[in-house]
Design brief:
The chain is 45% helix and 6% strand. The protein is mainly alpha-helical.
Length: 484
């Protein structure tokens, strides 16, 4: 009941064929007849088009090994892990920040997000035609599709900078549409487009509390406000961060930090938006998400990649309950009684990817939490501090620290509180796919990577390379990022 993801085999085969050799080949409309549309011209049918978008997040290329490489192994929170000779195709060069324009993880992440945007555009094209479905339901579903499209464009702009904006189903015979698909837009244009989608979503989405229990994972008004606040944070629009954070209501910090990353705590009062997985047919988990990060070797259950770094271990203050909730240490017993022997190959593993029930399964019940209330408080604290309202920022910072078992901060100056908030983001949100991007947006990257014995090249490593195959396909319409 808790999972909204259903088997979409027939619909996927009919409407959502994955992109082939062309990255942005999103013309799928020729196979959709009036009869086909009529099959889905009801409330249940309308919902399937948006459920198909959520299903994209349960794909290997969207949320698993390549994305883990880009968003986590690259950061100072994680090392490649695994065996020294097992590169994981490219996880060694991601760890060392020496990847190039042919990097498989950069390519798969780029392509997967456009496949998801394709599904959003399909849904937004078809939903208005389903006139037998309830109008208010269709409006809500369009809001969900716009939120999810904004979410994917936010991933793209963080990773690659300016990217093509595809806002409708292209006409295959239109030269204008071909250019649209292959021309990178300025970063400011991408952010403006994300903001437009989110504001339109906010107008029609319900609150999380308005959804039945079986649909709590769907995008809500609170999720759209929280993502809009985060988009503003990346642009340093400090007052807009505060304003949008203030509109994220109906959520609260859970008492037990570790509980959020276990099955019983999923989609709880702190959760704003997370990707759900479950290891039972016909609903599925994220392929390999838990397995690729599981303990490796004798007594282990996985591939052992994305291991917590010594730098991350040292970032926790004494008594911080988040350390043992985030990191699996060899020689310790997990919350479910499983003992992790010292015979495993790596000394540490990602606890937030662990599945108790489906420990060594390829698809597990582990979720990925992307937005939660603790981050809203930290975003607001950061913005308040930047606007000189440091005393108010400290109150929010201390809420996060106290939940972690720590005393109030002893810092008081704007500069010290800025650093304290950044440090708190690191330990609060470790392995939640934010650290690399936080280092870049705050200008900490070069210093942080040097401390972790990595070389961050300013002017290059802020962005990942646009896939070389896309640049070739663009034929001069798009340029590569600097340094690649």
């Amino acid at each position: 009941m808790k999972k909204i993801y259903i088997s979409m085999i027939a619909l996927t085969a009919l409407l959502f064929t994955a992109c082939g050799d062309d990255f942005l080949d999103v013309d799928q409309t020729e196979t959709i007849s009036t009869k086909d549309i009529e099959m889905f011209n009801n409330n249940e049918g309308a919902a399937t088009f948006v459920t198909a978008i959520y299903n994209e997040f349960l794909q290997w290329d969207m949320s698993s090994f390549g994305w883990i490489g880009l968003s986590s192994i690259t950061s100072d929170d994680a090392d490649k892990g695994s065996s020294p000779g097992d590169t994981g195709t490219d996880k060694d060069v991601l760890d060392a920040l020496t990847y190039n324009a042919s990097n498989p993880s950069a390519e798969s992440t780029f392509k997967a997000n456009y496949a998801g945007i394709n599904r959003c555009n399909q849904a937004l094209d078809i939903l208005p035609k389903l006139d037998k479905a309830d109008a208010s339901l269709r409006a809500r579903l369009e809001g969900e599709a716009k939120f999810l499209r904004a979410f994917m464009y936010f991933t793209l702009v963080k990773c690659y900078g300016g990217v093509p904006i595809i806002d409708h189903l292209p006409n295959p015979s239109s030269e204008e549409d071909r250019i649209m698909q292959l021309t990178r837009k300025p970063v400011a244009d991408v952010y403006a487009y994300i903001e437009k989608d989110l504001n339109e979503a906010i107008a029609v989405l319900p609150t999380k509390a308005s959804y039945p229990a079986s649909e709590k994972a769907r995008a809500s008004k609170g999720a759209a406000y929280a993502l809009l606040a985060k988009v503003s944070l990346y642009q340093k629009k400090w007052q807009e961060v505060i304003d949008n954070c203030n509109l994220v209501t109906g959520y609260s910090l859970v008492t037990d930090y570790a509980s959020m990353f276990r099955l019983a705590g999923e989609n709880g009062p702190e959760s704003i938006f997370e990707i759900n997985g479950v290891a039972s047919v016909p609903i599925k988990g994220i392929p390999g998400y838990s397995n690729t990060q599981g303990a490796r070797g004798a007594g282990g259950w996985g591939w052992g990649f994305n291991t917590p770094s010594e730098s991350l271990v040292n970032a926790y203050e004494e008594g911080d309950v988040r350390k043992d909730a985030t990191i699996i240490f060899e020689g310790t017993t997990l919350y479910d009684g499983r003992f992790v022997p010292t015979s495993v190959e790596n000394p540490r593993y990602n606890y937030k990817a662990y599945s108790s029930t489906f420990t060594d399964a390829w698809e597990t019940d582990t979720n990925i939490i992307y937005l939660r209330y603790a981050e809203v408080l930290l975003m607001k604290a950061e913005a308040l501090n930047e606007l000189g309202q440091t005393s108010q920022a400290i109150l929010l910072l201390d809420q996060i620290r106290n939940r972690a078992g720590l005393d109030d901060t002893t810092f008081s100056s704007q500069s010290d509180i800025r650093t304290a908030i950044w440090r708190e983001r690191r330990v609060e949100m470790a392995f939640e796919h934010d650290r690399f991007f936080d280092l870049v947006r705050t200008g900490q990257a070069k210093t942080a990577f040097e401390a972790d014995n990595k070389v961050f090249t300013v002017g290059k490593n802020e962005l990942f390379p646009i896939p070389a195959s896309f640049i070739r396909e663009a034929g001069g319409l798009s340029e590569q990022n600097p340094g690649y």
